[in-house]
Amino acid sequence: MNLCNAMNNAMDIALETDPNTVIFGEDVAFGAGKLDNGGTDVTMVAWGTQVHVLREVARLAQEKLNVSCELIDLQTLMPWDIETVAESVCKTGRLLVAHEAPHTSGFGAEIAATVQRECFLNLEAPIERVCGHDTPFPHVFEPFYNPDKWRCLEAVKRLVNF
């Protein structure tokens, strides 16, 4: 039994045994990423609020750079959809991962390592990670900490100009 099935079974048991069980979330299949929009030049991967940021980056990249970006919303991280990401990266040859965690030890490092292993011969440029900074940040400065569309757009430029 894989992790997805185990988690689904655990939720089913919880619902059967306790009529007051509340599960809050979206209609998400564990381990299945969602292709937000198709593209041919750069694969962009995110989850949570960064999906909205990269959606805007894809629009800007098309308008300003004539670069077509494929956006994948991972939806779940354990497990994450390696197959969808690898298939996209093999098609585009480039990967940008954006997340709000610090650069060091963030989940983007796991994605980058896996893609490097699975898609090495298809990569046209080094994998770009746009993340939070490796330093404590006060909450009031969060807008300067989190990856924004401009930092991500600069990463797209680096990928296509490598």
Give the topology.
Layout: H1 3-17, E1 34-37, E2 42-46, H2 50-65, E3 69-73, H3 82-92, E4 95-102, H4 107-119, E5 128-132, H5 142-145, H6 149-161
Parallel strand pairs: 2-3, 2-4, 4-5
Antiparallel strand pairs: 1-3
Helix pairs in contact: 2-6, 3-4
Protein name: 2-oxoisovalerate dehydrogenase subunit beta, mitochondrial-like
Pfam families: Transketolase_C
Keywords: Oxidoreductase
- Order of SSEs: HEEHEHEHEHH
- Indicate the radius of gyration in whole angstroms: 17 Å
For the termini, the CA-CA separation is: 42 Å
Number of strands: 5
Overall tally of domains: 1
Number of helices: 6
Portion in helices: 40-55%
Query: How does CATH name the architecture?
Result: 3-Layer(aba) Sandwich
Structural class computed from helices and strand pairing: alpha/beta
Strand content: 15-25%
CATH class placement:
Alpha Beta
Low-pLDDT stretches are none
Residue-averaged pLDDT: 89
Largest beta sheet, briefly?
5 strands, mixed
Organism: Priapulus caudatus (Priapulid worm)
InterPro entries: Transketo_C/PFOR_II, Transketolase_C
Keywords: Oxidoreductase
Domain Transketolase C-terminal: 31-150
